[in-house]
Amino acid sequence: MTDATKFELPIVRQEPVSRRGMLKSMGAMLGMSAWAAVMQPLVEWAQDVSLDELLQKHYRELTAEQKQLVFKRLEEDTKRDYGADVTISDPKPTPGVQFAYALNLSVCTGCRKCAEACHIENNHDRPSNNSYIRVFEMEKGGIDFEQGNATYDHPVPQPDKFYMPVQCQQCENPPCVKACPIEATWQEKDGIVVVDYNWCIGCRYCEAACPYHARRFNWTKPEIPADEINPDQGYLSNRIRPQGVMEKCTFCLHRTREGRMPACLEACPTGARVFGNILDPNSEIRWVVENKRTFVLKEELGLKPRFFYFFDE
Fold it and tell me: Would you give the end-to-end CA distance of the chain in angstroms?
């Protein structure tokens, strides 16, 4: 049983390393050919980046007034590039709240409705059919998602199989945060690990550090028809990400910090998903953790995920 009341946040430095300084240092360490290969996606991305965007400060260094100017610029960029009117917000963590997720594997049917909802809610690139959620078809009796099949194309559920959706585990001790050389990713007070997409240099160190394969890299500029763009966007969550940066699940913070549920939960037809404030003793998520035999993926790594799995007895 996991102690749901003890979640210690990692210590982060308050002065992020300069992107330009980090790029210069990386260039000095690598040979020219290797450096060119590493930088190619960033070079392609930079062709469409304005000077204001290139010189933008880290999110945590921006004043409230500067943030509003950044949001306005991004809204105008979306209108110009995609023909869609959007509103970018910046909801803050609520004191006394730490979000956690639980998933009942006994009732998940592998329909992938959660992944589809994630794809739409988070303004993913349409040609790649990207999503922050992968659903693994597993042999009954095993729980190693590395041995699962995430590309099945037959009707579900199949006999003698169970299905395990995997996404960002919002670890209490996130290795991705420690791996980022410029602090473009960090953990917020409500436990959600976020990315400043305008600060990320696309080195992909965080992707390599994540044992859950929960990070995504934008190889190309996202393609989304104007009428399919979700206009309700958060700066640290579902706004359209630029090419050449890392992105990840944020528990739909633009929704959950406003009192709504994640899109994947609302889309689940079987009620397999449970979400809420694990610090609230009366919450459903707290009840599940205290009363069900929950487990986490790769517990031996000591990352303390805030994403729990369980089976009905």
Answer: 15
